[in-house]
# Entry
Amino acid sequence: MIAEPTLLQILDLARWAPSGDNTQPWRFELAAPDHVVVHASDTRTDTVYDLDGHPSQISVGALLETMSIAASVHGLRADARRRAGTPDEQPLFDVRFSADASIAPSPLAGAIARRSVQRRPMSTRPLNGDEKRALEAAAGPAYTLSWIEGFGPKLKTARLMYDNARLRLTMPEAYQVHARIIEWNARTSRDRVPDQALGVDPGTLKLMKWAMVSWNRLSTMNRLMGTWAPRLQMDLVPGIACAAHFVLKARSAPHGIDDYVEAGRAVQRFWLTLTHLGLVMQPEMTPLIFSKYVLDRREFTRTPGLFEAAARLRGRAQELIYDGPGTPVYMGRLGAGQLPRARSERRPLEDLLIRR
# Structure
């Protein structure tokens, strides 16, 4: 018999799992002393970055991996299964816990609440061999890691991120997401992204806050002043100021929700491992997301010319991201550096519980 306080301790730690824009697309139902039902969801109906639900599914995988690591602290095994017949948009996962004498507390447990997104410049010190081997082992045998290192390749990747950022800053569909998820005048946020964590200077931040009152105001400012200032600070400079960019690739192409959930578990092991090693990381998912939309011929915006621009960027990404075996499922930059002072936090556990 597992005491309810133990399950609550596990969930209180697991709620720190990463999710896109800090949406936390999950709720927890205590179904039995050894059984938690995770009510998951995705944001495809209102988020241009999640139109096929795959980014949210990766987040759910990260949650399930975090639950398993948190359970290990108590000598418990966590077995998660997606419930058959539940829709991809709102899947249910049955997580059952059992005592197992072979389970040792994971060394990654201490990194769960410290793991965060660092959007500011990092050290350019190259990763050493031990760090790379630890990160590659954390990803697991079903995945490979491609490293983009050295000034020239990093500059190419930074310019790719800089140009992809123009897509997200000039389409109304993305503005709707940004306006919803940024919490202004904040260093931390329980359910959004605090503005002080965006990685721009105070002057640019003030201008962004003023412009984002409405799409008309923002689009007018973009037309008159361009979008180079936030892209320079949020994409180009950080893209150079890091140890490396990485691409996590699945050896077998993912075909459905279960594959993306498994990818999310690998992402969380990787992220917690780098945090444990004293490194920091920032996801860089827009090239993967928009490239997939292009390949799937998915119309993601009504703004003329942006789909064609995304197709051109997909061509530039071919050499950097898509060459070689494996299917890219996650991308980011990493390096040595301090944990950010401003960060997203999480909703209290009580707000995430479903009481029957």
